[in-house]
């Protein structure tokens, strides 16, 4: 049942999952009025992140239904609150995973809002007014301007959309380890999906030797020819894994399913670091020997802060980095999610919201507060 919050007066057409089948159907709901700190955005495109699949199907057991997924949003500003000086009507903007944070803690003050304890997400979060947040699988969004970024003029709005989550999620750990400004390292990217393919592009743009580590031998050619990867290791091939031992300075692990980290850690040099950004619903296997015998570290990282997101967008503009996408439409979201589950997309679905008709629903499906 959708919430009833007094100033939620704007009727919005969107697409939601209603139970753990994850099936997405048209959904009409309400958003808040544009507040003094808000911008209203006409959504043009929204990427389909693997997280949307986890959430639609309640993989993590935390989904509040109905859930309107989507946190890789691009669009155009149509309304600006009186406190907003940084955006104007007509601006090309993007919104990622953040809807609200406390604004007061040390992390918020240092623009590491992604580590704020009170962080609320763009969907399946609880906003300051107590309402459940609804994401970008919808025609319109009201967002606090502090979590909105500008999209560089030279980047297309569809292929830029996944940068808002996939992009910043892989940029942040690279930046954290100074890899955006110290070229010449040997970097491994595990899992060549939405996050992984952007990681390869960033790795190359920042001047590194990039090795893709994947279970799919069929991805080798495209990884090298198309994404510019220097090397490719099939993680199920013992000989290749053996040959790659102690060869990498840093590994970014984007795998979405449970797996063992041990053999991957063996690919790191002594004192190397693996940053895990993938979020399987089951724990990893983490044997101690590859860690202790190589003084290796395993760390996690979640999305990125707002300053980092702006920095990443500027870098993408400068290096002309966008995502490789397959455009889809709202009526095909279910097929797209099934294909994401089967790893059958190169490399990100993006929903063309701008050109889709508004969602229509039967009267009995309209939420009760309309
Ligand atoms: N940390 C964060 O802030 C953050 C942000 C976005 C997404 N995520 C998570 O990252 C993961 C990846 O997201 P994505 O959108 O890139 O997904 P994706 O589906 O596009 O890519 C996942 C990749 O993992 C590979 N994979 C799946 N199972 C595997 C297995 N058992 N062994 C090896 N490889 C396997 C797939 O082939 C695919 O290449 C998801 O779990 C998602 O929820 C985390
Ligand atoms: Zn995401
Ligand atoms: Zn905070």
Entry summary:
With 370 residues, the protein is of the alpha/beta class. It is 22% helix and 26% strand.
Task: Break the fold down into its secondary structure elements and pairings.
Layout: E1 10-17, E2 24-31, E3 38-48, H1 50-56, E4 73-80, E5 92-95, E6 98-100, H2 106-109, E7 120-121, E8 140-144, E9 148-150, H3 157-160, H4 166-176, E10 186-190, H5 194-205, E11 209-214, H6 220-226, E12 231-234, H7 238-243, E13 248-253, H8 262-265, E14 268-276, H9 289-292, E15 297-300, H10 306-319, E16 325-328, H11 333-341, E17 348-352
Parallel strand pairs: 10-11, 10-13, 11-12, 13-14, 14-15, 16-17
Antiparallel strand pairs: 1-2, 3-4, 3-8, 3-17, 4-5, 5-9, 6-7
The structure holds nicotinamide-adenine-dinucleotide and zinc ion (2 copies).
One zinc ion (ZN) binds next to helix 2.
Work out the strand percent.
25-35%
Overall, the morphology is globular
Number of helices in the DSSP assignment:
11
Q: Return the structural class.
A: alpha/beta
Question: Any ligands, ions or cofactors bound here, and which?
Answer: nicotinamide-adenine-dinucleotide, zinc ion
Named CATH topology of the largest domain? Quinone Oxidoreductase, Chain A, domain 1
Helix content: 10-25%
Overall mean confidence score, pLDDT: 95
CATH class division of the largest domain: Alpha Beta
Q: Indicate the CATH architecture of the largest domain.
A: Alpha-Beta Complex
The H/E string reads EEEHEEEHEEEHHEHEHEHEHEHEHEHE
Largest sheet: 7 strands, mixed
Number of strands: 17
Computed Rg: 20 Å
Intertermini distance: 12 Å
């Amino acid at each position: 049942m959708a919430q009833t919050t007094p100033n939620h007066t704007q009727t919005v057409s969107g697409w939601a999952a209603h139970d753990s089948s994850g099936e997405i159907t048209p959904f009409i709901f309400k958003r808040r009025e544009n507040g003094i700190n808000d911008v209203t955005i006409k959504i043009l495109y929204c990427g389909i992140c693997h997280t949307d699949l986890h959430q639609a199907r309640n993989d993590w057991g935390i989904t509040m239904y109905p859930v309107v997924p989507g946190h890789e949003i691009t669009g155009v500003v149509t309304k600006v609150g009186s406190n907003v000086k940084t955006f104007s009507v007509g601006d090309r903007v993007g919104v990622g995973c953040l809807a609200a944070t406390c604004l007061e803690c040390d992390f918020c003050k240092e623009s590491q809002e992604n580590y704020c304890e009170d962080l609320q997400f763009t969907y399946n979060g609880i906003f300051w007014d107590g309402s459940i947040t609804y994401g970008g699988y919808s025609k319109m969004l009201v967002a606090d301007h502090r979590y909105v970024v500008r999209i560089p003029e030279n980047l297309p709005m569809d292929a830029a959309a996944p940068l808002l989550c996939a992009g910043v999620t892989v940029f942040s750990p690279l930046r954290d380890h100074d890899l955006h400004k110290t070229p010449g390292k040997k970097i491994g990217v595990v899992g060549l999906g939405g996050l992984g393919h952007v990681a390869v592009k960033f790795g190359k743009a920042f001047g590194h030797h990039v090795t893709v580590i994947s279970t799919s031998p069929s991805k080798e050619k495209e990884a090298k020819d198309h994404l510019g990867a220097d090397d490719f290791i099939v993680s199920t091939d013992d000989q290749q894994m053996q040959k790659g031992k102690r060869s990498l300075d840093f590994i970014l692990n984007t795998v979405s399913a449970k797996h063992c980290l041990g053999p991957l850690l063996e690919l790191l040099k002594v004192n190397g670091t693996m940053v895990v950004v993938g979020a399987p619903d089951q724990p990893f296997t983490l044997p101690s020997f590859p860690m202790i015998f190589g003084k290796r570290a395993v760390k996690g990282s979640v999305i990125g802060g707002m300053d980092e997101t702006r920095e990443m967008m500027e870098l993408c503009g400068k290096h002309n980095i966008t995502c490789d996408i397959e455009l889809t439409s709202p009526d095909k979201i279910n097929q797209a999610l099934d294909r994401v589950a089967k790893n059958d997309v190169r490399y990100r679905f993006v929903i063309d919201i701008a050109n889709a008709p508004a969602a229509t629903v039967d009267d009995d499906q309209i939420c009760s507060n309309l």
